[in-house]
Specification:
The complex is a heteropentamer of chains A (117), B (306), C (81), D (1041) and E (230). Chain A is 68% helix and 0% strand. Chain A is mainly α and 117 residues long. The N and C termini of chain A lie far apart (46 Å). Chain B is mainly alpha-helical and 306 residues long. Chain B has one domain. Helix content of chain B is 70%, strand content 1%. Chain B contains 12 helices and 1 strand, in the order H-H-E-H-H-H-H-H-H-H-H-H-H. In chain B, helix 1 packs across helix 9 and helix 1 runs parallel beside helix 10. The longest helix of chain B has 36 residues. Chain C is elongated. Helix content of chain E is 68%, strand content 0%. Chain E contains 8 helices and no strands. The longest helix of chain E is centred in the C-terminal third of the chain and has 25 residues. The chains are: A mainly alpha (117), B mainly alpha (306), C mainly alpha (81), D mainly alpha (1041), E mainly alpha (230). Strand 1 of chain B pairs parallel with strand 8 of chain D, so a sheet runs across the interface.
Chain lengths: 117, 306, 81, 1041, 230
């Protein structure tokens, strides 16, 4: 469904905007998770075929040609993996935020510029 | 040693002897003339002879070391050598000296032999005025050698040879064949250089008698000084003979030689030397590197275009 | 019909996203971000992907929000010390 | 057959087990850890070996379905190479990190194992999404391992890394999913010809994929985060990131090449090139060792990327072995050297590169450090050298000269900062010790040995190479091992080796080559005697020296341009290292190596052009080139820089002056002739080339005479005796070049004659100065004086050498002058002759100055009791002196062989009559001149000797001083600023304009580097914006339609 | 402000760059080759009713293993990052949880665990599977944490379960390699009758292991975030 992929891209853009402009590290991470959500929407929307159902064999689809009635299961499978990985990364980023806060008592990204040039 | 060599050596000694006499006389004459121009009476013409005899007869000498001792030797060896490498009289066996050893470049470089040796001797004397004089002399030398070398190159191009004998040969026949007429620019450049070479005014800063008493040879006396004075005669005449050969058609007999060298010397020491005040070192360097050098360059360019 | 619902949800999601970025209160921002995921899981149902919907609801909106809150809590407790 | 899938199974199993064992038994856990690494090494090595034997590549289908239905892995020879390297690094890095791991947490080991596994996965997988998963595995483990050093620096860097990584994975995933949508598969092999590239969206998807990976390779300017990471993480981890991770990502990009549209390749090459040049540019100002390594890593990966992208664009690739040499060489070189250097950085523990001087206390470490630096710069005998050579050759053959310049420029910049760093390390002034543990040192050493071994192997792969360099290096190693021998014995061995080598080599050489052989080898042999006087035992001295001398010989017997260049580089490196030994030679050595390398790169480029035109690397092939002007200019300029021609002479005085006193003679008397040899060889092969209507030899002639002039002039104004002689050398070389440029029989005779005489008198002078300085602890001439009585032997040899140098008859120098003017006039170069004459008169100024200021005049109180230097200084002087006297008396001793050698190439224009040599213009009888001079010298001398009884020897200070008599002799020595008036008159010509010019260039380059590195603000968000900009610019440059 | 403007511009350009994905890529109406095969042959080959599960567990099993590894290393990594406790002593929770929560959770936790187990054991039949089930297990644990703020999980136990299940996963993978077509091939067990709990080869077993492992890993992450090791 194109609408949903557009929505996905809009979320990606908004998330990116947040990640690039928010000074607070937590907000940056929120931006990142918005990107993730948008990305997942895009991926799933790729696999959708209008008028078809989830690729689960049940009474309802018995006897029908599965090849003509199911949506693509691959994007769904990929997104499952992506969601879990996204969680792992988000968790790690948050732990980094915790650690960084301990060193500097700050969550402002500009306060972490000792290394440069 | 075979007879050819012995004859060569005999001839050279004869030639050298004659030229020494003439050189000393010339010095005496010029001293007299300069004095007269200055309005002084001046020493007798044979004064150089007396000086040499007196100095060599002195009973004691002081030596500051080996190089000091050898300095005058270098100097006079260079004077004699320079002369001996020049064919003094065109066509004469006696006066052709050892000119078979090398060409005009040999002569030009052999002049340095004595200057370097003398400078070393003077250096060892430990007298600060000596190196000051040497420093000035060397500096000035680099400058006046420029127009001179340019002139020589111009000549080499003009005559297509470096052999002095052949250069002289090419000038025979008419007075108009002399280089001074066929290649006047080269001659002018070289003659200006000669002023520096002779260290007469305005280029006498090297020996500046009032400031650094006669410069490099300050510490020399008695037999050393005698040797230096002898050299002054021989070396002087060697240069004059070289000029005569290069620019004034050479000489076919001893009389011409005497005449020509006398006239060239008079020109440099009297006509110019008396009339100008002394240059400082850097002034004389700049002087030589400007117009004389330019004239020398022009001489080369004109010759090579021909 | 479903298109209207989708667009409606989409607008809410975008609004939630903007809120998540610009709310001063971090907890509210975090929850706002969770709402996006939650609504996304509804959208997955429209896309015939119930597996994804479940996962997104459980992990994307549930666990992620909790992790955010825990981490934030940690920072807050560090700050108070 | 072990299924490669066991790499994953073992590492994961071990990771889970370690998690289980962490509380139970640490020892077992450690054992499991190393065992696992060993097993995956075994598997990859096993496959590597099998594949080398020609076995079929391993295709692994997981889940039992064929691709594209399931994820498949592939293990071919290329994969195997990368796996072996990654796993070896994994193992040794683990050894290196073990102590740290033990200290901190077993979790680090788990993460580490999974990281290595992830890298293996990246290399092997053929599935896009699987690639993404492995990418995330490696990223997450890296993020976590970054905190191995738990400080705010590493964590800030880590966070920046995570931001970049997040962007990368987003882009990658978008690309992947759209490729799946458009290509109908996630499998790389099935996507290749699926028609995805027919649509803009497909190209865009591919673009996103490739560029996401590219960002992981840290291209300029999207790499700020990477630098911070390199700077702050534990060096063991940095080694993994810089080498193993980069390698894996690089391989992934390589895998993707078939998928890319052809328009990507130039862009990738461009990005690689820009990264290479700019990273090196910015590295110039860097003082933090680890960040410096970061810049270098990034640059190297850029180079690798550029090389790969360029090679893929070649229409006619010579052979597979070229690809292996170029990519393999560059890659392995970077891989091993960078890992080694990061490890070293961990051992040394110092951040600032200036503080690395402590490494000098630890010779093995210093040796290793030097090895890695050389390898990284791409100098022989390391693989990078072959790679750069082959790359330049192939680029030239494919008419990509711009790329040759880009790569050479970048390499030069890199060399500058690496050598600067190395310089700091060599200069030891501190006593602080470095704590080394075998576990840390061993991996470093093994990697260096690996580099050396692979470098040797490279010899077989590159066309035109052979093991010509092995003998010198071998002898060097032997001498290094024999370091415990007494100094004189080592020196004697060295001398024997040189003599034996000459005995074997010289008869095999032809005409001019043979003459240069005599200069190089016999000259060196004589100079070697000087080194017997050494007291301090510096380990590397004789090894380096023997490599240098024998390489000089190799230069002569080189048949291919590669052999020539190889020997050339060996000489450059060894001489640099020897110069660096000087006490204050840091800056001078750096300038020396910079100019030398620039020259070498010009030569390399020229040889590349020659290869393009001839298709062969044989030197003789050069002769067949029709339009050889460009080649002549490039090679010629390279040689001239080595000579120190005016304009490029700024390295020369410093290097000569600051090198150790007994090494300077080699530099001046022997090494300076290699440039001359190069020029002659060039002239033999190319004749008199014309470029755009300009006679190049004419320019060469003017360059020569200007060098002679400025060399002499500058020498006259020096107070430092070595600097004076250095400038004097420069001037003399100018004459040699001038004569060479005449390109006639007489000209070449002159040139070679001057080469010989210069060897003799400069040998004497520099050895004498070395002896002098061994007694007098100053180089300032005005601080000496009156030493004639203290060291008469030295004085005599210096005197003779000076007379020979100045060209005053009767000594051999005059022969050179006479030949020079004769040939110049014969050629019609009158103005050059005039200027040469002027220069030679100026030479008198400094000639006198040396003799007077040092040996004559009033002695200094402090130096009253100095003695004649050690006999080892005297012997070589007198050997040379004997040579001077012999050829002064009998010039035909040398002139005859020179003339006959030259007549191979030109019809003779001079002939002999007894002892008289006669040219078309003049004549010269050296023997007669000598006789006459001796005669006229003897007569007055005898007279004076006759009067000797009247002579009283007095003290030096006993002088006739008018009116004002100074009370101390030392104030009476007129020596300081001896030619003040000359300075007034002509000093404006001696102003260091050229030095200023190069100084300004260096400064501009440094400040440009400093300007660009302002990009790296340290803000993680800014870095993310850089990534975005990079992506967008790349995309719009690509102009997808 | 300038920086914001530039960022805005860049993001706008990025959006423009993404445009072809929206404009050129229309909705498909048919499955591609790979999906076609999964949908048509999948049920026969693997015997799983839920084809997404079939793809996740078997066809793309390596990805799933990787995913498990990602969670595993995230858990380990978080533990590694937080290895040094905060300098301040860990503040005791200010108040214990309410009575209602505690009683409610005592009732809910067993139900949640049961529900989680159901989800992952029926992954091959109904929507959901190991991940979802694992998360449900985690939520049970979370509830426990909320109601018993003082209590700490037996860390050893979760870790042992996690590791052992990981190793089991690998063993099953190897069994696939040895007994069936390749690593992680689920067909080394009988496919059975579609729709039954014990069908679809090893898929339910694998998914259960995944469920347990994911649950333990997530609990580990939450626990580490909640309280640090000392």
């Amino acid at each position: 469904m194109t609408v949903i992929s557009i929505l996905g891209f809009i979320l990606i853009i908004i998330g990116l905007w947040g990640m690039l402009t928010q000074k607070n590290i937590i907000k940056m991470i929120i931006g990142f998770s918005i990107i993730d959500t948008g990305l997942h929407l895009v991926i799933v929307s790729i696999g959708f075929i209008k008028g078809r159902t989830a690729p689960i064999i049940s009474k309802a689809v018995e006897g029908l040609d599965t090849g003509k009635n199911f949506i693509d299961p691959v994007p769904s499978a990929l997104v499952l993996t992506a969601i879990v990985i996204g969680l792992a990364i988000t968790a790690l980023m948050l732990v980094y935020a915790v650690k960084l806060f301990r060193f500097k008592r700050s969550l402002q990204i500009e306060d972490f510029e000792e290394l440069k040039w | 040693m075979n007879s050819v060599t012995l004859i060569l050596i005999g001839n050279a000694i004869l030639s050298l002897f004659l030229i020494t006499i003439w050189g000393l006389t010339l010095n005496g004459m010029v001293m007299k003339i300069v004095a007269r121009v200055h309005g002084r009476f001046g020493p007798p013409v044979w004064q150089p002879f007396l000086d040499i005899i007196k100095n060599n007869a002195k009973r004691t000498m002081i030596a500051h070391g080996t190089m000091f001792f050898l300095g005058p030797v270098f100097r006079i060896a260079s004077g004699i050598g320079t002369y001996l490498f020049i064919p003094a009289i065109f066509g004469s066996t006696v006066f052709s000296n050892f000119s078979f050893s090398g060409d005009v470049f040999l002569v030009m470089y052999f002049i340095f032999f004595g200057q370097l040796g003398m400078a070393l001797g003077a250096g060892e004397s430990g007298h600060p005025y000596s190196p000051i004089g040497v420093s000035r002399g060397l500096a000035q030398m680099t400058a006046f050698e420029v127009p001179f070398s340019l002139a020589v190159i111009s000549l080499a191009v003009q005559y297509n040879t470096l052999s002095i004998t052949e250069i002289v040969a090419a000038q025979q026949g008419s007075i108009l064949n002399w280089t001074i007429f066929t290649n006047p620019l080269a001659a002018i450049a070289a003659l200006i250089a000669l002023l520096g070479m002779n260290m007469h005014n305005p280029f006498s800063i090297v020996i500046a008698p009032q400031e650094i008493p006669i410069g490099p040879p300050t510490e020399y006396h008695s037999a050393y000084l005698g040797m230096l004075q002898t050299n002054r005669a021989i070396f002087n005449i060697a240069k004059l003979v070289l000029y005569m050969n290069l620019f004034f058609g050479g000489a076919t007999n001893f009389i011409t030689l005497i005449l020509k060298t006398f006239l060239i010397y008079i020109f440099t020491s009297v006509a110019v030397g008396v009339a100008f005040p002394r240059f400082r070192t850097e002034q004389s360097i700049r002087f030589f590197l400007k117009y004389p050098a330019l004239i020398g360059l022009l001489a080369i360019i004109i010759v090579s275009i021909k | 019909m479903s298109l209207i619902i989708i667009i409606f949800l989409g607008i809410i999601m975008i609004a939630a996203a903007v809120l998540a970025l610009y709310l001063k209160n971090l907890v509210a921002a975090i929850i706002s971000a969770g709402v996006i995921s939650l609504l996304a899981s509804v959208l997955y149902l429209f896309l015939a992907a119930p597996d994804v919907a479940m996962t997104e609801a459980a992990i994307g909106s549930g666990l992620t929000t909790i992790v955010f809150l825990l981490a934030f809590n940690k920072i807050r407790s560090d700050r108070e010390d | 057959m072990v299924n490669p899938i066991y790499i994953f199974i073992t590492s994961l199993g071990a990771a889970f087990l370690l998690n289980l064992f962490q509380k139970i038994n640490r020892k077992i856990a450690d054992l499991i850890f190393f065992l696992t690494l060993a097993v995956i090494n075994y598997i990859s090595l096993f496959w590597f070996y099998q594949l080398l034997q020609g076995y079929e590549a391993a295709k692994i289908y997981t889940a039992g379905f064929l691709p594209p239905y399931s994820i498949n892995l592939y293990l071919g020879i290329e994969e195997a190479v990368f796996l072996v390297l990654i796993n070896l690094l994994g193992f040794f890095s683990a050894v290196y990190l073990y102590k740290k791991f033990r200290e901190i947490s077993i979790k680090a080991m788990i993460l580490y194992l999974v990281l290595i596994m992830g890298l293996n996965g990246l290399v092997m997988t053929r599935d896009l999404f699987n690639l993404f998963v492995f990418l995330e595995i490696t990223s997450i483990t890296t993020y976590a391992l970054i905190s191995l050093e738990d400080n705010k620096y590493s964590l800030t860097a880590g966070f920046k890394f995570i931001i970049a990584g997040g962007l990368v994975s987003t882009l990658f995933l978008i690309g992947t999913i759209y490729l799946y949508r458009l290509g109908g598969s996630l499998n790389l092999d099935f996507l290749v010809n699926s028609g995805v590239l027919n649509t803009k969206a497909g190209i865009l998807a591919t673009f996103l994929l490739v560029f996401a990976l590219l960002i992981e390779l840290k291209p300029f300017p999207a790499n700020g985060w990477a630098l911070d990471v390199y700077q702050s993480v534990h060096p063991g981890i940095a080694a993994i990131i810089a080498s193993a991770s980069s390698a894996a990502i690089f391989f992934v990009i390589y895998k993707f090449i078939p998928l890319m549209p052809s328009s990507f390749l130039p862009l990738l090459a461009g990005i690689g090139g820009v990264t290479f040049v700019f990273s090196n540019l910015m590295g110039l100002k860097q003082t933090d060792a680890r960040r410096l390594l970061g810049y270098s890593s990034i640059a190297q990966m850029g180079l690798l990327l550029a090389a790969l992208a360029l090679i893929m664009q070649f229409d006619n690739l010579q052979s597979l072995s070229s690809i292996i040499v170029i990519i393999g060489g560059l890659f392995i070189n970077h891989f091993l050297a960078k890992a080694g250097l990061f490890w070293l950085a961990g051992i040394v523990q110092k951040r600032n590169i200036r503080s690395w001087k402590i490494i000098a206390n630890n010779p093995p470490l210093l040796l290793v450090f030097g090895g890695f630096i050389l390898a990284l710069i791409g100098l022989p005998p390391f693989p990078g050298f072959w790679a750069k050579w082959e790359l330049v050759m192939q680029l030239s053959a494919n008419n990509m000269m711009v790329w040759v310049w880009i790569i050479l420029a970048g390499s030069l910049l890199e060399a500058v900062y690496l050598f600067r760093w190395f310089g700091y390390a060599v200069k030891n002034t501190e006593v602080e010790e470095i704590r080394t543990e075998a576990a840390q040192y061993l991996p470093v050493l093994i990697f260096l040995l690996g580099l050396l071994y692979l470098g040797m192997e490279g010899t077989h792969l590159v066309s035109g190479a052979d093991s010509i360099y092995v003998l010198p290096v071998l002898l060097g190693v032997i001498l290094y091992v024999l370091n415990w021998l007494p100094n004189k014995l080592k020196g004697s061995l060295c001398l024997l080796a040189v003599i034996y080598f000459s005995y074997r080599l010289l008869p095999a050489l032809q005409d001019i080559y043979q003459l240069f052989g005599v200069v190089f080898l016999i000259g060196s042999a004589v100079l070697l005697i000087t080194t017997f006087a050494r007291k301090d035992i510096f380990k590397g001295f004789y090894p380096l020296l023997i490599i240098m001398i024998l390489s000089l010989g190799n230069l002569l017997q080189a048949k291919t341009s590669l052999q020539f260049f190889l020997s050339w580089e060996f000489i450059t490196i060894t001489s640099y290292l020897l110069i660096l030994r000087g006490k204050f030679s840091l800056k001078a050595a750096l300038i020396y190596i910079t100019f030398s390398l620039a020259g070498a790169y010009l030569i390399l480029a020229g040889m590349g052009l020659a290869f393009r035109d001839t298709g062969v690397v044989s030197l003789a092939g050069l002769a067949s080139i029709v339009n050889s002007g460009y080649i002549y200019v490039l090679l010629g300029l390279g040689f001239l820089i080595k000579i120190g021609i005016v304009g490029f002479h700024v390295w020369l005085p410093g290097a000569y002056t600051e090198a150790e006193d007994d090494f300077t003679p080699f530099l001046s008397a022997v090494l300076s002739k290699m440039g001359i040899f190069g020029l002659i060889m060039l002239a033999i092969l190319l004749g008199e080339p014309v470029l755009k209507g300009i006679q190049l030899n004419y320019i060469l002639g003017w360059l020569g005479v200007l060098t002679a002039f400025f060399g002499a002039l500058l020498a006259a104004f020096q107070e430092d005796i070595k600097k004076l002689l250095a400038y004097s050398s420069l001037g003399q070389l100018g004459y040699i070049v001038l004569a060479l440029a005449i390109h006639s029989h007489l000209g070449w005779v002159t040139s070679i004659y001057l080469t010989f005489t210069h060897l003799l008198f400069k040998g004497i002078l520099f050895v004498a100065v070395a002896g002098l300085l061994s007694r007098v602890k100053t180089r300032k001439m005005y601080e000496m004086g009156g030493l004639i009585n203290n060291m008469p032997l030295t004085f005599i040899s210096v005197l003779i050498a000076i007379i020979a140098l100045s060209g005053v008859p009767p000594l051999s120098g005059f022969g050179g002058k006479w030949l020079l003017y004769s040939s110049l006039l014969e050629k019609g170069w009158y103005l050059q002759a005039g200027l040469a004459f002027f220069a030679s008169t100026i030479a008198f100024l400094y000639c006198y100055r040396i003799l007077h200021s040092v040996f004559l005049g009033q002695p200094k109180t402090a130096l009253r009791d100095v003695k004649e230097p050690s006999v080892w200084y005297i012997v070589p002087q007198y050997l040379f002196l004997f040579g001077i006297m012999a050829i002064s008396m009998y010039p035909n001793l040398i002139l005859k062989p020179v003339m006959s050698a030259v007549s191979t190439y030109f019809a003779s224009s001079i002939y002999w009559e007894d002892y008289t040599v006669i040219s078309s213009l003049g004549y010269w009888n050296g023997n007669a001149v000598m006789m006459v001079t001796m005669g006229v010298f003897m007569i007055p001398l005898l007279w004076l000797l006759f009067r000797i009884k009247a002579v009283t020897k007095v003290k030096q200070f006993n002088i006739v001083y008018a009116a004002e008599r100074p009370d101390r002799p030392e104030t009476t020595h007129y020596a300081h600023n001896f030619f003040a008036h000359y300075q007034k008159a002509l000093g404006f010509l001696a102003r260091p304009k050229v030095t200023e010019f190069w100084g300004n260039i260096a400064e501009v380059i440094h400040s440009v580097g400093a300007l660009f590195r302002q990009l790296y603000t340290g803000n993680g968000q800014t870095y993310a914006i850089h990534i975005l900009i990079f992506l967008l610019i790349s995309y719009f440059i690509l102009g997808v339609k | 402000m300038a920086k914001r403007f530039i960022t805005l511009l860049l993001i706008a350009l990025l959006a423009y760059m993404f445009l072809p994905f929206i404009v050129e890529v229309d909705e498909t109406s048919q499955l591609n080759r790979v999906a076609e095969k999964y949908v048509t042959a999948g049920p026969l080959e693997l015997g799983a009713a839920n084809l997404v599960t079939a793809v996740i567990v078997t066809y793309r099993g390596l990805d799933t293993l990787g995913e498990i590894v990602v969670l595993f290393i995230a858990a380990v990594g978080i533990g590694f990052l937080l290895r040094k406790p905060s300098k301040k002593k860990i503040a005791a929770p200010k108040r214990s949880s309410s009575e209602i929560l505690r009683t409610g959770s005592d009732f809910l936790i067993p139900l949640l665990i049961l529900f989680g187990v159901y989800i992952f054991t029926h992954g091959h039949l109904t929507p959901g599977g190991g991940f979802q089930g694992g998360v449900v297990l985690t939520s049970a644990a979370l509830l426990f944490m909320l109601s018993n703020t003082e209590a700490r999980f037996n860390k050893q136990l979760t870790e042992v379960i996690e590791s052992v299940s990981g190793i089991f996963y690998l063993i099953i993978g190897i069994l696939g390699l040895i007994l069936a077509g390749g690593f992680l091939d689920s067909r080394f067990l009988q496919l059975g009758e579609m729709g039954r709990l014990f069908s679809a080869g090893a898929i339910p077993i694998i998914y259960s292991i995944i469920g347990i492992k994911v649950g333990m890993e997530l609990i580990g992450i939450l626990e580490k975030l909640r309280k640090e090791e000392i």
